[in-house]
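re: that chain from earlier
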Amino acid sequence: MQVSSSVMRKIWYRKGMLTIQFANGDVYDYAGVSALQWKWFKESDSKGRYFNDNIKGRYRTIRR
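^ sequence. v structure.
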């Protein structure tokens, strides 16, 4: 889904895998993200703040 964020362009979620395309074009997968965490992330007012506080450094990360 397209997002309104200065640091992210798109976010996706499928079966525990959160995928983020950042504004610079880099794409990362975050493994083990719960459906509830995804819900809170996609509904957050600030995707960048939510990402930094709740996702970054907490999940196995794969750069595509």
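Strands lie at 8-14, 17-22, 27-31, 60-63.
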